[in-house]
């Protein structure tokens, strides 16, 4: 069921023609502009989206799109992990046009609500330390840093991070999300 507020913001399932292509394009363009990442990153996102499009199980995996005034401005996906009790949060993004109304938080909230309803016990994610706003969102939901490792990817020297959330521990109150968690400088994702 879509969520809406007074700013004509909607969070809905990623199930309309063009949604999946937009996810790939938006990631490529946003990360290039903000971080100088090359098309290797866009190729990674394309593989994630293609796997979702061709093999997802609707009762266990889903994607969401955030819109402002009918235009796509954000996304997130939840896919099955390597073990039946573990899901992966993938490709969270809020474009500059969508920042401000806590869309990153809303998207992650939808993702985690779905994960709980689907019976997952844990959600993991991989990100890079330069994505500061995304990290704040993950921390506000109770994700903890499991490990990190330096790597050279997308034409940059980066520090990759693995985060995990134990869904059996309960859901934290996200009404106190840190100021700036969805604003500026970070594609949240």
Strands of the widest sheet, in order across it, are 1-2-3-4-5-6-8-7
Structural class: alpha+beta
Number of helices: 4
**Percent of residues in beta strands:** 25-35%
Helix and strand pattern? EEHHEEEHEHEE
Largest sheet: 8 strands, mixed
Overall average pLDDT: 89
What is the overall silhouette?
A: globular
Radius of gyration computed on alpha carbons? 15 Å
Give the proportion of residues in helices.
Answer: 25-40%
Low-confidence stretches: 173-185
First-to-last CA distance: 24 Å
Number of strands: 8
What does the model show?
There is one protein chain. The protein is of the alpha+beta class. Helix content is 31%, strand content 32%. The protein is built from four helices and eight strands; from the N terminus they run ββααβββαβαββ. The protein has helices at 19-35, 39-55, 103-117, 132-140, and strands at 3-4, 9-13, 62-68, 71-80, 86-94, 122-128, 144-153, 156-166. The protein has an eight-stranded mixed beta sheet with strand order 1-2-3-4-5-6-8-7, sandwiched between helices. A hairpin with a 2-residue loop joins strand 7 (144-153) and strand 8 (156-166). The protein is globular and about 40 Å long. 39% of the residues are buried. Residues 173-185 have low confidence and may be disordered.
List keywords for this structure.
about 190 residues, alpha+beta, 4 helices, 8 strands, about 30% strand
């Amino acid at each position: 069921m879509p969520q809406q507020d007074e700013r004509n913001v909607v969070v809905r399932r990623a199930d309309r023609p063009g949604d999946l292509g937009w996810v790939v394009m938006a990631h490529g363009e946003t990360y290039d502009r903000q971080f100088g990442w090359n098309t290797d990153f866009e190729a990674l996102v394309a593989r994630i989206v293609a796997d979702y499009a061709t093999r997802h199980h609707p009762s266990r995996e889903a994607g969401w799109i955030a819109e402002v005034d009918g235009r796509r401005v954000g996304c997130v996906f939840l896919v099955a992990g390597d073990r039946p009790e573990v899901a992966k949060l993938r490709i969270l993004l809020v474009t500059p046009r969508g920042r401000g109304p806590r869309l990153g938080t809303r998207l992650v909230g939808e993702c985690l609500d779905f994960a709980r309803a689907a019976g997952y016990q844990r959600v993991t994610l991989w990100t890079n330390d330069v994505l500061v706003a995304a990290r704040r969102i993950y921390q506000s939901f109770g994700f903890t840093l499991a490990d990190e490792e330096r790597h050279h990817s997308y034409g940059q020297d980066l520090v990759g991070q693995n985060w995990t959330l134990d869904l059996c521990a309960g859901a934290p109150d996200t009404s106190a999300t840190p100021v700036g968690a969805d604003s500026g400088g970070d594609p949240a994702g």
